[in-house]
Amino acid sequence: MPQVYNWQLGRTMEYPYEERHPKSQFAFVFNTNRCIACQTCTMACKSTWTFGKGQEAMWWNNVETKPYGGYPQFWDIKALKLLDDAHQKAGATMGWETGKPGPSKPYGEYSGMTLFEAARQRYGPEGHQRVLGYLPTDEEWRFPNIYEDTSTAYQGGRLGISAEGASLPEHKSWFFYLQRLCNHCTYPACLAACPRKAIYKRPEDGIVLIDQERCRGYRACVEACPYKKPMYRPTTRVSEKCVACYPRIEGTDPLSEGVPMETRCMASCVGKIRMQGLVKTNPDGSWVEDRQHPLYYMVKIEKVALPLYPQFGTEPNGYYIPPRWVPRPYLRQMFGPGVDEAIDKYTAPSRELLAVMQLFRTTQKMLSRYEITQGPKVYETTVNGKPWAMYNDTVIGYDARGREAVRVTVEEPVHVRPAQYANSI
Question: What are the structural domains of the chain?
Answer without folding.
Answer: 3-347 (3.30.70.20)
